[in-house]
Amino acid sequence: MTTSEPTTTAGKPPVVSERVVTTRAARANAHIGKHAQTIAIGVVLVLLLIFFAFSADRFATTGNLLNLLRQISPTLIVAIAMTFVISTSGIDLSVGSTVALTGSLLAIVLQHGWDPTLALVAILALGALIGFINGWFSSYQNIPPFIVTLAMLSIMRGTALRATEGYSTPIDGDLWIVQLGQGRVAGIPVPVILAVVVAAVGWITLTRTPFGRYVIGLGSNGESLRRTGVNTRKVGLAVYVLTGLAAALAGVLIATRLSSGSSNAGSGFELEVITAVVLGGTSLFGGRGSMLGTMLGALTLGVIANGLVLLHVSPFYVQIVQGAILLLAIFANSKVWARFGAVRK
Amino acid sequence: MSQAPVLDLRGIHKSFGPVQVLHDVAFSVYPGEVTALVGDNGAGKSTLVKCIGGIYPIDSGEYFFEGEKVQVGGPRDAAALGVEIVYQDLALCDNLDIVQNMFLGRERRSGLILDEATMEELAARTLDGLAVRTVTSLRQRVSSLSGGQRQTVAIAKAVLWNSKVVILDEPTAALGVAQTAQVLDLVRRLADRGLAVVLISHNMNDVFAVSDRVAALYLGRMAAQVKTSEVTHSQVVELITAGRSGELGLQNGNGATS
After folding, report:
1. Chain A neighbors of B89, CB-CB under 8 A
2. ipTM value of the model?
3. Dihedral sign for Cα atoms in the order A276, A279, A282, A285
4. What InterPro entries does this protein's entry cite (chain A) (predicted)?
5. Fewest beta carbons less than 10 Å away: which of A317, B52, B107, B198?
6. DSSP code of B253?
7. Cβ–Cβ below 8 Å for A227 and B104
8. A4/B148 touch (CB, cutoff 8 Å), yes or no
C-alpha cells in the first residue's frame, strides 16, 4: 500500500498551534517513567551483586556465577514467553506443571527406547499443544486465562503424577540429550546459551516485529487492534503456545540437568516466572512489556536465591522472599512508578 | 456540477435478530465533499457506518464503489477499497506512540523486522500534509495527547492510506470549542484534497459549518439526502426528529411501518 501524497491546501489559513499540553518537565517525567523500572531493577541488581560479593566468600567466582546463570536459565526462558502473555493482559499459571509433565514424559519415553531427537521434538510439540489448549479457551472462548491455566495447572500436575506414579524416572547419562542440561560449549553451560538465544529472539520479536506490536496493542486496546483488521484471537492464542513451548523446553533442561524426570519438578515455578516478569516492569494489566526488564528480573531472583544459600540462610526463606518481592513489585508498578507519568490502566 | 458518487449504497437492509435496524437505506457519498450523516440516537447511523466498514455484513442491498458493485466481507475489504473509519471511541492504543498507532495492523517492514524509519517519515509527511502542527513529537505516546490531538492522530491514521472515503464518527463529541474548530478545519481540508468525507454528528453547528450535503436517518430509514445549502437548520432538525419536513423526507411520516 502507498500513502497518499501530502498536498497542502492553498488558501486555507494554517491551524493555530494548539497550546502544547505537556510541559517539558512532564515529558521528562514520562520519559523517565518509561524506563524507570528497568533502570531501578538494574540498580537493585548491581547493589545485590556488590552486597553478596562482599558478604559471601564464594559468590563472585566464575564457577558460581556460571552455576547461577544455569540455575535461572529455565526461569528466564519461560519468563521471556510469559512477558508476551502478560503484555496481552493474560497470565499462564500452568507453566510449572507443564515443566513437571514434560520432564517426566521425556524420561519415560527415553526409558522406552525412543530416539532422543524424536523424544525432544515430541515433548516440545506437547508443550505447544498444552499452550494451544490454554490459548483456545482464553482467547477464542473468552474464559479468563487465570481460570483456564489454573485448571490446566491441576490437570498437568495430575497427569505427571499419574504417569510417574510419583517416582522419579532416571535418564541414561550416555544419551546426547543429557548434554542439553549438563553440557558446556567453550565453558558456558548449554542452558545459558539457549536462554540467551531465546532472550534475544524474544526481545527482537517484542520490540521489532508486527507480532510484538500486536501483543502490546492487544493488552492496551484490543478492540482498536481488531478494528484495524488484525486477527486478535490468533495473537491471543499464539502467546500461550509460546509459554507452553517455553515451559516444555524448560522441562527438558531441568530433567536433563538432573538426569531424572520428576513429577514434583517445577512446583512454584510459575510464581518465580511471574515474579521475574513483574519485577522487570511488565504491567499485569497488559499493554506494557519490557524484555530487558524481564531478563534483569530473572537475574535478580537468581542472585537472591543463590546469595542467600551461600550466606547459609535457610533455603525455606527463599520462597518467602520471592513472594514478598512479587507483592512489592506489583505495589511499585501500580503505585510508585505511576507518579512518573507512566500510564497504568 | 454533480459528480458521480464514489460510494453508493442502495436498498440496504440490516437486522439484528428480530430487530430491523436499517430499512431500504440508500446513501451516496461524493468525492471532494463532506456529507453529514445525521439522525437521532438509535436511527441507525452507527450500524450504517459499520456496514460500510465491513464490521457488520449487510443482509441485502447493493454496495457500489466508484461505480463498481463490490462485496465487502470484512474491515480488510473496506480498507482495500479505500474506505477508512475513525470511530467515536477513538480507536487508538494508549500505550503505543503516534507512529505505532498510525501504522497499527499495517506495519511497514523490511524482512521480518519493522521499518521504523520509513514509518516515521511517512507519518510525518502525512501530518505535515494535513498541516497538523499540534503534536510535538511523533514518538509521544497517545496517552499523553489531548482529546483534539488524539482525534487528529486518528484522522491522520485514516488518510495515511490511499483512502478515498473517510468516515468520522462524532469526531467532535468530546472536544472543547477550540479543538472542535481545529478538527472541523481538518475535516474541511480532507474534502478539499478530494476525499469523500462522511461526518456523523449530533451538533447542527458542526453540520452547517463544514458539510456540503446532509443525509438524515430516521428510525432506520433514509429520510432525505439534500445539499446543505438548500436546507435550513430547523428543516434538518425536523428531518431528524420527525423524518419529514414539508416536501422533504418520508411521506408516510412513520418510518416504523414496513
Report:
1. 223
2. 0.77
3. positive
4. ABC_transp_permease (IPR001851)
5. A317
6. S
7. no
8. no
